[in-house]
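Proteins fold reproducibly. Take a sample protein:
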Amino acid sequence: MRKKVIFIGAGGYAKSALDSLDSDVYQLCGFIDNIKPIHSLHLGYPIVADSIENFLPYQDYEYFISIGNNIHRYDKFRKLQDLNCKIISIIDKTALVSIHAEIGIGTFIGKMAIVNSGAKIGNNVIINTRALIEHGCQIQNHCNISTNTTLNGDVLVKDFCFIGSSSVVNGQLHIGQHSVIGAGAVVIKNVEPHTIVAGVPAKFIKENK
């Protein structure tokens, strides 16, 4: 019997997550979303509630948080943990994930993404389409690694980072928590916490408050 799953968040990211959900294992039963009307449809599935608190019996389901914004995704993650709900990870069948990598809970690994040996991926992380996470990289919790990003060997990405599409991070660098790397950037030195960098090579743009 397939496991019953509810997605939290009925936006664009939910489309990718649903496409990568293993339908042999999981049955999507609907979405929780506080913007779309209750009982309306998203991707052919019903909006069942506007919050986990208003969804009963919530204990009968497993959950995936399909929200792209790191802070909003963290808020839902914490709420589910407080309620002792089971949070699943979704790994697309086309992704290449080393048996020597570690993957946390609630994490998404999209189509044709690569996670190589010794990589450690935290909880509630998005690794999007065609992203490359090289050997020994560590991505902490609640991060978003966008499409076609390359993290070379032994990069450390701390909590709540956003790394834009097609950016490249040189090996052995540290990306500070709550930092943002712009799309197409080439990062050749450490990025301080709470900063936004962009360009080739990447340079400080402003603080990320």
Q: What stands out?
A: Residues 91-204 form a domain with the UDP N-Acetylglucosamine Acyltransferase; domain 1 fold (CATH 2.160.10.10). The chain has a mean pLDDT of 97.
